[in-house]
Amino acid sequence: MTGLRELTEPDAQGRFGPYGGRYVPETVMPALLELEAAYREARSDPAFWSELDYYYRQYAGRPTPLYFAERLTRELGGARIYLKREDLNHTGAHKINNCLGQALLARRMGKRRIIAETGAGQHGVAAATVAARFGMKCTVYMGAEDVRRQEPNVFRMRLLGAEVVPVTTGSATLKDATSEALRAWVTNVEDTYYVIGSVVGPHPYPAMVRDFQAVIGRETIEQIRAAEGRLPDVAIACVGGGSNAMGLFHPLSAYPEVRLVGVEAAGRGLGTGHHAASLGAGEPGVLHGALSYLLQDEHGQVREAYSVSAGLDYPGVGPEHAWFRDTGRAEYVAVTDDEALAAFQLLARTEGIIPALESSHAVAYAARIAPQLPPDAIVVVNLSGRGDKDIYHVMRLLGQAGREGEAAR
């Protein structure tokens, strides 16, 4: 069995097992080394964490509740289901945890401008929010397709003072936005800080973003012990890049009795090729500066991902997830668009909570396994974000399905 430290801490080259590292042009290395040194210093400074904890509590609204979903539990039968309510954070998702940490680090490094990439828009909104709070200029790169799908979040970012740059290359989604943000950072490293939104990218980003998101798992451990007197049997979170999942998994990984389940987007089905299941159907390769599992064609080229959820529409995954997969510490499953849409409606109908489409994938898997578990089993689902941003997208999808059903009748 791999030791806990070897499982969860990168080596000197920033690798989790064989994954991670720094596969970047020479021009980016000085910026990464500067960032690594700054984060190493901040990580060992209690004053840094004390200030971050202040903003978590007084600005973001932490701790978020761990809510017992009584009606959902009754509807499904079987295990008791708890929801970790990251959707109740300021800006509506877990993304604010990481953005607050990186903004404080950018300020500590003397940077006055931040750039970010975004898929569903939640990370872009969180980056624009912290930029406004700390008086920084902000530019957000977003795929043109995601700009279309996530119009309310684009408006929010602009309202907060950020410049939103639509990216039209490739599939015009998160992968292309990330590539464009990396290119922009290369040409502006002197005064610009790049706020990566997930546990992806070159070292030290995967471990650093994880550290800022680990507050989710620490709170969950404390709250479930207070509610049930023990840890959960299963902890479930959706996985695109994987930041909300690693935030939940990392503190729980020290407890082998807790089953960790990451839920990827199966899209239209793994057999169709239209999905975003990097861990379930990908192979190791390099993307955005790190080695991890990613979707590739027969020539080793990065293949376009697909998901109904913009936040999961990414062909790669964080390297620590790849290591968890290979070592067996976590298992990774996939849920289709149809299952996620059904879970979106199920949680709204039973609990009065409209989840993000990303989170709906985790809810869908909980709905799949809960009836098979005994009534005294405990399942925690990380509700990574709220579904306001997805309302118009889902309305179009369900309206189209309804019209097709009427036509068939």
UniProtKB/TrEMBL annotation:
SUPFAM superfamilies: Tryptophan synthase beta subunit-like PLP-dependent enzymes. It comes from the Bacteria. The beta subunit is responsible for the synthesis of L-tryptophan from indole and L-serine. Pathway: Amino-acid biosynthesis; L-tryptophan biosynthesis; L-tryptophan from chorismate: step 5/5. It comes from Caldinitratiruptor microaerophilus. InterPro entries: Trp_synth_b_CS, Trp_synth_beta, Trp_synth_beta/beta-like, TrpB-like_PALP, TrpB-like_PALP_sf. It catalyses: (1S,2R)-1-C-(indol-3-yl)glycerol 3-phosphate + L-serine = D-glyceraldehyde 3-phosphate + L-tryptophan + H2O. Residues 60-385 form the Tryptophan synthase beta chain-like PALP domain. It is an enzyme of class 4 (lyase). The lineage of its organism: Bacteria, Bacillati, Bacillota, Clostridia, Eubacteriales. The keyword Amino-acid biosynthesis applies. Keywords: Amino-acid biosynthesis, Aromatic amino acid biosynthesis, Lyase, Pyridoxal phosphate, Tryptophan biosynthesis. The keyword ATP-binding does not apply. This is Tryptophan synthase beta chain. One of its GO terms (molecular function) is tryptophan synthase activity. Its EC number is 4.2.1.20. Belongs to the TrpB family. Tetramer of two alpha and two beta chains. The modification N6-(pyridoxal phosphate)lysine is found at K95. CDD domains: Trp-synth_B. HAMAP family: Trp_synth_beta. Its cofactor is pyridoxal 5'-phosphate.
